[in-house]
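Re: the pair you flagged

First of the two:
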Amino acid sequence: MFCSIIIATLARATLERAVRSALQQTPPGRGFEVIVVNDSGRPLPPSAWQDAEAVRVITTQRRERSMARNVGAAVARGDYLLFLDDDDWLLPGALVSLEALAQTNGSAAWLYGRTQLFDRQERPLIVLDHQLSGNCFIQLIAGEWIPMTASLIKTSAFFAVGGFHPLVVATEDVDLARRIGRTGTFAGTQALIAGAVVGRENSSTDYDQAASFGRWTREMILDEAGVFERMRASASSSYWSGRIVRAYLTSALWNLRRRKVFRAASRAGYSLAGLVLAGRHWPAADFWRAILRPYASFTFARAFDQARQAS
């Protein structure tokens, strides 16, 4: 089977649209399935889509999204996994476009397309066009976000990193991309794959904890062997070389404030190594800008510029 579309849900009214957007896809050559994981703690309202042959419904008991998605992945039969939020939807032709991308990028662990973002009133905002490929580890560490709703993740790569961290209830998608990017490569298509709703209103994401979870999971990744080398291999410009220095420098300060002296010293050592090894980039203003300033997503900046030009 080509892919499994996994929809973890709290039984929101938008679930039916999400499921139907999947069922209405033109089937790829090897077919697909839809796995709905009901984590609402109550039965789903009866609906015709529940009788579709391609659909399976699994019940979990309010175990949070990371665990619910892992349960769906555990029973999935597809070579790829697509995690669709229950308030998002796939656009026509999405699976055909992703299958074509898979045929030309079979070794990539993460395939993705463009995403149309909407506000909570479902008014169109911007289109995300990431332009990331191959080893993009430092870009992910810096803060780039690729929506899972417009992505195919190779099943073997997903389980190789242990799936979603079960204790992470915010930024779990960012953490997964970083851990897969630790060894795997990415490939994208210009095809518009999904619509995604963003914003705090009626969201199941705990935005108040997002920053702390993001820092905690990034610290765990920085503890792994070979991370520094992987970052350097993904730094394609003076700017990204500077981001390596900043990643370790901010981690050193964060650990020092928490009196984790030995870890802070290790991070400071890697920051210094990044600075020394990037010596040829020192004359570039972008290098120092990357070290001194917080990260502002190139993807979002590009999307807002395109939206302004269109208006």
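Second of the two:
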Amino acid sequence: MSNENTEEKVISQEKMSELLKIRREKLEKLQSEGKDPFQIVKYPVDTHTTDIINDYENYEDKTVCIAGRLMAKRVMGKASFCNIQDRNGRIQSYVSKNDIGDESYAEFKKYDIGDIIGIKGFVFKTKMGEITVHAKEVILLSKSLRILPEKFHGLKDQETRYRQRYVDVIVNPEVKEIFFKRSAIIKSIRNILDEKGFLEVETPTLQTIPGGAAARPFITHHNALDIDMYCRIALELPLKRLIVGGFERVYEIGRVFRNEGIDLRHNPEFTLLELYQAFTDYHGMMDIAEEIFRRTCQNINGTTQISYGGYELDLGKPFERMTMIDAVKKYSGVDFNEIKDTEEARKIAKEKNVAFEERHVKGDILNLFFEEFVEKNIVQPTFIMDYPVEVSPLTKRKPDMPEYTERFELFIVGREYANAYSELNDPIDQRKRFEHQEAMRAAGDEEANMIDEDFLTALEYGMPPTGGMGIGVDRLVMLMTQTNSIRDVILFPTMRPLDK
């Protein structure tokens, strides 16, 4: 169906103001006649557009009741065609004066693109073979007082798209599809974990001590208690308290908040999956991570092979596993097994032009080498294992290499997607690590952990050997939907106010 609606042409500012005025006048006239659409409280919708289109044989000649946004209209004297868009898609409708009556047809001709209408009629195919609803009743359910961006020069500006997501998903169907997939991805994660006997729980968003990650928190104030509180930066410590309590397998999918910059991979609030399983270690977490990524990709895309960042990825193959020391040696030529102490590490860092701070010791510098030389070179899914203890304050040490921990991060196309540990359950060692973190805070590291006395008390009651993992849900959605910016997979990303 062609669209001859004048609002789908480039409109000057003066013309726009006039059209907006006309829309309000139409509403005022309807209200004066006792036909205020905003007084309608419900409409008996019994099917959706794609149900009809995908199952036409069962809908042919059947009477249906649909509702949605008027996206196109072509008036031809006593009969017209229009397109209705609902949650799932669009369908054409044939509207005739002979079927709906003179008064209703006259009102229909005055409807504007963007109005929300209800149509009751029977399903048929036109001579051109297009599935159509032959209207027997048309009703205005809500008046649109704004003009939708036109078809060819529509809502393309990224800033406007993010600020006005409600318009973005109306005029850009592919955007809506991303968020349908996002919901399916989260459902897939839940199904996998539920199958494995994990219990989904909820833990506090407001905390008196932010912990579980190296990040700057947002600070707020609770008036009744007269205390400062923090928006959580991770889900970790409350979930591990539940492991102490005997839950054995728990997970949470929830929003966390980090007072950091905004770029293609970072938004100050984002969705995190964290899961903890008693009586396993970080190898057990690798197996679960691999299964989540592989099965979710298959569920969402019908294949384990996807394109991302210009690379062809196969999530169906076993993920590579490599220690941080081996990875740094491979990509920088420096073998940290041969480096005796911090002084030697700083010397080689200067030779390789790796910037470090005075507080950094050998383990920190190894991690800096990894960030400088390795991350950008990892394409296929790879578990980087055995991080230095200095950058892993909540992780169990490797028994044979106490300078290193049983920790991994999953990297794909240079980006981190998961972080997991064999969880530290020694309260004495944990206190020492917290004290080291407090010293780092005193030295100016605002992202270092604070001492959480209640968590230490929980560990003193005894926590079993436990594997734990966090997965960035937004980044996982980016991967599965082949999008490049985190803002494209968050419905309402954080934006600078327009007056700023």
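Residues 173-195 form the longest helix (23 residues).

-B.
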